[in-house]
Write a structure and sequence with these properties.
The chain is an all-alpha fold. The chain has a single domain, classed as Na+/H+ antiporter like fold (Up-down Bundle), CATH 1.20.1530.20. Helix 7 packs across helix 8 and helix 11 crosses helix 14. The two termini are 35 Å apart.
C-alpha cells in the first residue's frame, strides 16, 4: 500500500470534506434548494438518523462513571459555553471585523458549538487522561448545546439588529436531535449487542451523511452566487483565523487548568474537550439554525477548517501528553 493510499484510508473523512466542497462548486445543481436531492427534506432526515445512531451507541454506564469529576465538568462546560463564546465575541470585534458578514457569523457560530464526542474521548484515552470524564462532558455539552447554541446565536444576531426567532429554532433542533437520540437510547437495551457491533458502520454512515449536508450547504451558496464576490483574501483569512483561534484557545485551556486545580488526568481531558468543536453536530445545527440562508456555505467554512486542525494538533499532542507534557505545557 502506498503512503498516499494509506493516508487516504485513515483520513478519508477530511479528504471527503474537501471533495464535497469541490463538487458543490463544480456541480451545484443537485444539491441546490430546488435540486433533485431536495435538501430541505433530506437534510432533516439525515440529522435525525445521525442522532438516532448517537442514541444507539451512547453507553450510560460509561457516562455514570465520569460523574464524580465535578471540578473537570465545571471547567469544561464553563469554557465551552461561556469562555469560548466570549473569546469569539472579542476576536470578532477586533481581529475579524474586516471579514465578510457571513464569515464573521460562521466564526461566532463555531465558538458557541458544543464539544466533539468521538475524537475528544479517543484522544483523551490515548493520551492517558480521564476518559470517563471526557465522555461525560462531551455528551452533556452536545445535549446542552441543543438549547445553549441557539440562545447564543439569537443573542448575537439580535444585538446586531437582526431578527431571530429562538423558540421555533430550539423546537426544530429538539425534534430532530433530542427526540431521535432519546429513541435510540430507548431502543438500545433491546439491540445492545447488535448496536455494539454496528458502531463502526453507524459512524461511517453518519460521516457520509455529514458530507452530504456539507455538499448541499455549499451547493446552495454557489447556486445563489454568494461566492462570486468573495476575495481570496477573505478565504485565506478564514483559514488563518481558524488555525490561530484553535492555537490560542489550546494555550488558554492548558494555562488555566493548572490555575483551576485540575490533576494531570483531568487536565488532559480538559485539553482534549474544551478547545474542540463538533462538526458532527455543527453541520446539522447550522442547517437548522440558518435554514434558507443563502450564505450557509460561508457560515460553515470556519468549522470545516477548524475540524481537521483540531484533529491534527490533537494527534500530535497525544505522545507528548503521555510522556509528561502536563508538567511543561503544550509547547514543552
Amino acid at each position: 500500500m502506498s503512503a498516499a493510499s494509506g493516508w487516504l484510508r485513515k483520513n478519508w473523512f477530511v479528504a471527503g470534506l474537501a471533495a464535497a466542497v469541490a463538487l458543490a462548486f463544480a456541480a451545484p445543481g443537485a444539491g441546490a434548494p430546488d435540486g433533485w436531492m431536495r435538501p430541505a427534506l433530506t437534510t432533516k432526515a439525515a440529522v435525525a438518523l445521525i442522532f438516532f445512531f448517537q442514541g444507539l451507541s451512547l453507553n450510560l454506564a460509561e457516562l455514570r462513571a465520569g460523574i464524580a469529576s465535578w471540578r473537570l465538568h465545571a471547567y469544561v462546560e464553563g469554557f465551552v459555553f461561556v469562555a469560548f463564546p466570549l473569546i469569539g465575541l472579542l476576536v470578532d470585534a477586533t481581529l475579524f471585523r474586516f471579514l465578510p458578514t457571513e464569515l464573521r457569523t460562521g466564526f461566532l457560530f463555531l465558538c458557541v458549538l458544543p464539544s466533539t464526542i468521538s475524537s475528544c474521548v479517543v484522544y483523551t484515552a490515548l493520551a492517558g487522561g480521564n476518559t470517563a470524564g471526557a465522555l461525560f462532558n462531551a455528551s452533556v455539552s452536545n445535549v446542552a448545546g441543543v438549547v445553549i447554541t441557539p440562545l447564543w446565536i439569537g443573542a448575537i444576531l439580535s444585538a446586531g439588529g437582526h431578527s431571530f426567532e429562538i423558540a421555533p429554532v430550539i423546537g426544530n433542533i429538539a425534534s430532530l436531535v433530542l427526540v431521535p437520540l432519546v429513541i435510540g437510547q430507548i431502543v438500545r437495551p433491546a439491540v445492545r449487542a447488535l448496536a455494539a457491533r454496528m458502531v463502526p458502520v453507524m459512524r461511517t454512515v453518519s460521516s457520509v451523511l455529514i458530507l452530504f449536508m456539507v455538499y448541499t450547504a455549499f451547493a446552495g451558496s454557489v447556486a445563489k452566487g454568494v461566492w462570486s464576490g468573495l476575495s481570496a483574501g477573505s478565504v485565506a483569512g478564514a483559514i488563518a483565523g481558524s488555525i490561530g483561534l484553535f492555537g490560542a484557545v489550546l494555550g488558554i485551556v492548558w494555562t488555566t487548568t493548572r490555575a483551576a486545580g485540575l490533576g494531570p488526568a483531568d487536565r488532559i481531558a480538559a485539553l482534549m474537550c474544551a478547545p474542540q468543536k463538533t462538526l458532527a453536530a455543527g453541520v446539522p445545527m447550522a442547517q437548522l439554525v440558518f435554514a434558507g440562508h443563502p450564505g450557509l456555505g460561508l457560515i460553515l467554512l470556519p468549522v470545516l477548517v477548524y475540524h481537521p486542525v483540531q484533529l491534527i494538533v490533537g494527534a500530535w499532542l497525544i505522545p507528548r501528553l503521555r510522556a509528561g507534557l502536563e508538567s511543561s505545557g503544550p509547547g514543552g
